[in-house]
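Hey,
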Amino acid sequence: MDHQDKLVLALVQMNSVDEKEDNLRRAETHVREAARGGADLVVLPEFFNQKYIFNERNAEHMKQAEHVTGPSITRMRNIAREAGVHLIATIFEEERAGVHFDTSVVINRDGEIIGKYRKVHPGAMLSMETLYFRHGSKFPIFRIGSWRVGITICYDTFFPEAARSCALNGAELIVVPFAAPQLPCWTEMMRTRALENGVYFAPCNKTGVENGWTLMGGTMIVNPGGDVIAKFDEQREGIISAELSRAAVAQARIKHPFLRCRRPELYGSITAQTEDTFQA
């Protein structure tokens, strides 16, 4: 990055097929293209390396899980180093036998893994993700150059506490890998998450048909004022990018002082035990 205040973000919208090698090859091609376009950080959609399979119950699907030392992340580490970009790649992770997560792996431009985010809210609205992986329990912040970047994944977006936790932990940008079909209020929800937290908010979705689901695309970048500054409207593979400015984060938080006006001492019911909320 030439200027510490700036970050060029690229989001890859793609479709995955049965052959993992084909998915990895196309992901590498997209990362190279984004790097040639000046990207500092490239984000791949959720489960970029495989078809979405978690909309049905099938124990055989567990065999598709990989360790972060497995072939998919190893390939992405190599391409990040080769292209000289930071990269976020999300996989069906096997931590150890019987313990699985939906995990975003953060890779720096030297090809080193600098951290992981594990999906806190496995999908339960349309999918059966809770049958396949456990929930994570942290909202870590990652340093991408001088920027502070948070990650939430797909269904997490329906819980405003997730993005708010990232913002309170210091995020200036929240990236959101998705593998989602048509969802209600898609654009409105992304704009709201950006505005209410004073962050850039960047959902990166899949497209095409996978395991009977038509994935909607709709990949976009929203600025901290809630304005969409880049959007992929077409149902095909491709890349969108935008130059982000830290000054825009500061300006938005002055104009809309939601973080400053919070009253956390009054929000105990949000973190109360479930049974306790019914005692009144």
